[in-house]
Design brief:
Largest sheet: 7 strands, mixed
Oligomer: single chain
Strand content: 15-25%
Shape: elongated
Strand order of the largest sheet: 1-5-6-10-9-8-7
Number of helices: 11
Structural class: alpha+beta
Bound molecules: 3,4-dihydroxyphenylalanine
């Protein structure tokens, strides 16, 4: 009887030829079972070995194993070659040809970036407040429980914490670390600093990024921007607060947009108010955006609560003040009639380019 392995050398050569002819990784993956796997000549030959005389079986098995191993090595080499070729192809396609860029002469296909609508809005808000005599200050985005809540008169388990649910960072420290839900904690930093350095009074605005555990929709984002205002001085009254809000509103939105304050509640101010402005879409006549009220809520404000002054060690008998806070993204949305706030974070160049 002829050995079932009589044609092994020719079969191996044939399989090796097929390996070298593979032209892509996909093809390699598809053909692998036929080359070295279950459907290869080696697998079928393996089955015939049982028919051999026991003394021939071991030698034939080893011969077959060696042939299969040769093909496996060749297949691995081919896999590496094809992977390298595929990568080079991707790199070549991704290559940016800078050959026609001349310094000082930007070709029409390249555009120069510009600040985002939110950054531009923040700058113009700052300009209005600086013109009114405020300074611009900034605070950290990663805060402790004390700054984001406790010092603002929001003790643990206070129901108002639900409104300001956020992302907590577990650093295994005794203190809770979180992403700030509003710019109000910067008030605390400024007041603590002023007390430490004896530099009261304070007239500052504090813009910056905030975070909330919100699902994005047309009017909410999980990351957004606010601008906070803080005045601590002698003899400050609610009339000063109302005057600042009204002056800001007309300066920023234009003379035909007014402000109004409605009683509200915030743990860190007493009394507190919600700050609304004439709807910029219908100019006050009533439309869907303003739920036919003619007004749009922009933020909150109020007189500093004595508990907050106590927390930072300011004598409420000598000093008084007010604070306010509102959304920068909301201002951008209102002034530019952006119907869906998600456009602000989606990075769609067609949207962004309108504000260059
Ligand atoms: N921090 C409040 C919020 O995010 C807004 C706010 C309300 C800020 C009243 C204030 C204030 O400074 O006095 O909802």
């Amino acid at each position: 009887m002829t050995s079932p392995l009589a044609d092994l050398a020719a079969q191996t050569k044939d399989v090796l030829d097929q390996v070298s002819a593979l032209s892509s990784l996909d093809e390699l993956r598809e053909r692998e079972p036929f080359l070295t796997g279950k459907r290869s000549p080696f697998a079928s030959l393996q089955k015939t070995l049982g028919a051999l005389a026991p003394e021939d079986r071991a030698g034939a098995g080893a011969e077959l194993q060696e042939a299969r191993r040769t093909v496996e090595v060749a297949l691995e080499q081919r896999r590496v070659e094809l992977a390298r070729a595929a990568r080079e192809e991707v790199l070549a396609a991704d290559r940016l040809d800078l050959g026609d860029v001349v310094v000082g002469d930007v070709p029409a296909t390249l555009t120069v970036g510009h600040p985002s609508l939110v950054a531009l809005t923040q700058r113009s808000l700052e300009d209005v407040f600086v013109a009114m005599g405020f300074r611009v200050a900034e605070g950290p985005e990663v805060e402790s429980d004390w700054y984001n809540f406790e010092a603002l008169n929001i003790p643990p388990a206070h129901p108002a914490r639900g409104l300001w649910d956020t992302f907590y960072v577990d650093l295994g420290e005794p203190e809770t670390v979180l992403l700030r839900t509003h710019t109000s904690p910067t008030q605390i930093h400024l007041m603590e600093e002023a007390v430490a350095t004896g530099s009261l009074p304070i007239h500052s605005v504090m813009p910056g990024r905030c975070y909330r555990r919100d699902t994005p929709d047309a009017r909410h984002l999980y990351s957004f921007h606010q601008i906070e205002g803080l005045v601590v001085d002698r003899g400050i009254t609610f009339a000063d607060l109302a005057g600042v809000i009204e002056t800001f509103t007309r300066a920023y939105f234009g003379p035909d947009i007014a402000s109004r304050l409605r009683p509200g509640y915030f743990p860190f101010t007493e009394p507190s108010a919600e700050f609304e402005v004439t709807c910029t879409i219908c100019r006050g006549s009533g439309c869907r955006t303003c739920s036919h009220t003619g007004w749009i809520e922009l933020g909150g404000c109020g007189m500093l609560d004595p508990a907050v002054l106590d927390a930072v060690g300011i004598d409420g008998e000598v000093w008084s003040g007010f604070a306010f806070g509102f959304g920068i993204d909301r201002c951008a949305q209102m002034r530019h009639e952006v119907s869906d706030m998600r456009a602000l974070i989606e990075n769609d160049a067609r949207f962004l380019e309108q504000f260059s």
